[in-house]
Design goal:
The protein has 260 residues and is mainly beta. The protein has a domain of 132 residues. Helices cover 15% and strands 48% of the residues. The chain has 2 helices and 21 strands. Strand 18 and strand 19 form a beta hairpin. The longest helix has 34 residues.
């Protein structure tokens, strides 16, 4: 039996073949992109048993740092590493837990971003720094909270009840929501960004606030006992007996106190 194809049938055959080739190519492309993404980003997660008063030191290069408290005497570290993959060797030393990305990759210039999330005991001391990236700390009641961004990134400290708090960045906002402990020290400094402080109305502290652009907003928050110096560039004064020292400096941004 002779089988003859019309021009229309031949055309349809060619179209179907072309469509199949395109589908195969698309599948191969998606597969390749998926493999590349998996290669470009890796994730690690590990738990470390610690004391409830552990001191945590984390030195990142670029990437976000999120620290949250939980009711366990252990640290859960989750890190997402982007290509080129950095060396990462968390270690425990006595009552301390150290993650030193800077030291572990000394001499390298091709280190990818690392985004950290740490769940830690509520009474931990945390000492955090990164060159570029946001730092977020919530519900820490240990003695120390330090957050330092040497270049660009926001700092957000919420639910903090530590006696010593130090937050500093070059470019980015700083937000502090917490309580001032008796005889505590609280130093907040931004080169360019807004600093917002939310504390209870019955807080007692000694304040020194300086902003060269005169954007210091205290209002009638507690009393009129603050002295304005330098034509509004600096405010000093005591509130409720001045039991803790609060120093806030902003070179190119506002300083605002809010009632909680």
């Amino acid at each position: 039996m002779n089988t003859r194809f019309t021009f229309a049938q031949i055309g349809m055959f060619r179209l179907n073949l072309r469509a199949q080739v395109l589908i195969v190519a698309a599948v191969l492309l998606i597969s390749t992109l998926g493999s590349a993404t998996a290669w470009a980003q890796q994730k690690m997660s590990k738990r470390y048993p610690v004391s409830k008063n552990v001191r945590i030191v984390l030195k990142n290069i670029t990437g976000t740092i999120v620290v949250e408290s939980w009711e366990r005497n252990e640290i859960k570290l989750t890190a997402t590493l982007e290509s080129p993959k950095a060396n990462l060797s968390p270690r425990q030393e006595g009552d301390g837990f150290i993650v030193d990305v800077i030291g572990d990759n000394r001499g390298r210039v091709d280190v990818g971003h690392i985004n950290f999330r740490l769940q830690v005991p509520a009474y931990s001391e945390v000492d955090l720094e990164t060159r570029i990236g946001n730092i977020t700390v919530s519900n820490i009641r240990g003695r120390l909270v330090r957050a330092h961004v040497s270049s660009e990134g926001d700092i957000e400290l919420t639910g903090i009840n530590a006696s010593h708090v130090y937050a500093k960045n070059r470019t980015g906002d700083i937000f502090f929501d917490g309580e001032f402990a008796r005889d505590g020290e609280y130093h907040l400094q931004s080169g360019k960004g807004n600093i917002n402080i939310r504390i209870p109305a019955n807080s007692a502290f000694s304040l020194t606030a300086a902003a060269p652009n005169k954007q210091i907003h205290i209002g009638e928050f507690w009393n009129n006992g603050f002295k304005s110096m330098g034509d509004g560039r600096k405010f000093v004064g005591n509130v409720g007996g001045g039991k803790s020292e609060v120093v806030v400096t902003n070179f190119q941004g506002s300083i605002t106190f809010m009632r909680r």
